[in-house]
Specification:
The protein is mainly alpha-helical. The protein is about 70% helix and about 0% strand. It has four helices and no strands.
Length: about 100
Amino acid sequence: MKKVIPIMLSAAIVTACANPEEIDERQIGDEKMSCSELKDAYYEADRFEKEAKDERGMTGTNVAAGLLFWPALLVTYSNVGEAIDAAKDRKERLVRLADKKNCDI
């Protein structure tokens, strides 16, 4: 029983890591989007990027992870980095599509 409690505590801390939503660079129907739809999708990707960046800050979860189980903090920062990169890739793709259609984003 004494071994179960630390294992459960460790599992709880690891699963509490920030896991921001990650978007795909390519989505079905991208090429068929109108200029206004491309603009909306760009702002949505920008929102995902900002939310991911917010997870990187001094949140309660990050402080707890740093104090109690520092590897969880590394997982959080890795997840955040991947989500930010995915959002940036999505935004770049949308800009390329908009350029092809002479849209202004």
